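note to self — DONT lose this again. spent like an hour looking for the file last time. sequence + predicted structure for the chain T wanted, 376 res
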Amino acid sequence: MSRPGLRCQLVFVTLSAYIEAGLKAGTKPAETAMQSRVTYNWLIGARTDSLFFFLPWLFGFAVILALMQTDVSSSACLTFLALQGLGLGPFHMGMTWAHFKDSETNQHLVGTREQKLKALATTALIMVFCIVGMFANSSVVTAVFLATTIHHIVKQNSGILRLYHNSGESIPPRQIEEKTLNLSAWLCALIFLARNSSVINMQYLLYAAALVVLTLFMFSAREYLDQLFSRANSENQVNIPALLFWLLAVLFFLPFSFITNDYNHFLVAPLVMHWFQYVVINFVLIRRREDATGASSINIGNFLILSAMFMIFIISTGAWVVTYTNVESPLFKAFTGFLIALTLIHYVQDAVLWRFRDPVLKKMIIPYLKLQQERI
């Protein structure tokens, strides 16, 4: 295993030891008493959660290592294929589009004339910003893409972690939980940017900012774990799968901050993991909704066919553009801006679709993802 991989494994083992010590802090209770303080409530099931929430971390790590072993041109092409096939391609974004085929969802979100106009205007503005921006100042568009992608991934991890929580469990305050996820993600981003900055003064500034964020994260993580363990008793148990997912979420970007100098590589592995999460969550939601209502709101077969056709078009066109043009080519800039625009539109759609604060959407989603009483 590479040094970064060993370093990440050491961090994981150290944090796991700290978590175990937290559970045993204070006294040495009998084993039965210890068991009464923990529970194992998986979101979907132990096997499914492991395959789609936890193991993809290793798969994403393997993807980025494979990309780093290729030459520059091949790596660019393979990175594009990985992003479109197992990242932000049609099989990912198509899941969001498919929800709007559901009549109840469509009526609630874009049922009125004003809602339709707002959606079209937002789509047009994002397209113009990204495509024109790639010609005017591609760095600005890239920075927006990087920031919104990190935010999008963190929000999904936060949402899944929220689904893991149940009544009768020890649950730290929501604000502290979200703070730990955000701080860890931006800490990794700052380290990545500092490592790759060509301006020495900017590098020092970024490292200084990373040190500040690291300090804030350490205090927040300590507070999170203290709150979790201090509330734990026979009536408010520590849900181990939720704790493991929190640990995974705070380490989501860590290894990729140190082993690559390409921002596409920095994002591709987290996006691959994000893809696995999103696909299984949507599949479970659709299937359980169909089983409960007896009506098929989304035709899986049609969805797969349309997504596959769109994916073939995007991948074949993109592979040609990446292989036979250069970054200064107008075609390359326009195509890149178009893909970034599709991605940002997906982020906006997701933010609207998975807004649990909306009582109508919450009623349409939570009962099918949570088969037991939840604390959301």
